[in-house]
Design goal:
mainly alpha; two-stranded antiparallel ribbon; 2 strands; elongated
Length: 95
Amino acid sequence: MNLKKNENEEHLTRRSRRHEILIALIKQQKDLELMDEGVQVFKNPTNHSKKYDPSKIVERNQRIIKKYQSLVRSAIALDALLQSEDYDISDGGIS
């Protein structure tokens, strides 16, 4: 029972550390974009302006998602490296 509690606490600690790393990576981005919802395109299908081209919105959103996925993968990789070194990110020292 105690072992399961320790595993759960370790999981929460690691998850928190991953979030901290991800936030730090996001803060380093100069021009991080947010996705467009593109709802107006589907409400008015007769609107053929280039600004609201559905394919362009989908392509842009896919590119943005790939960027976020890359940041998440980087945070996970950095966390694994920190874990392998038994590094405590809260005080900046090695335990």
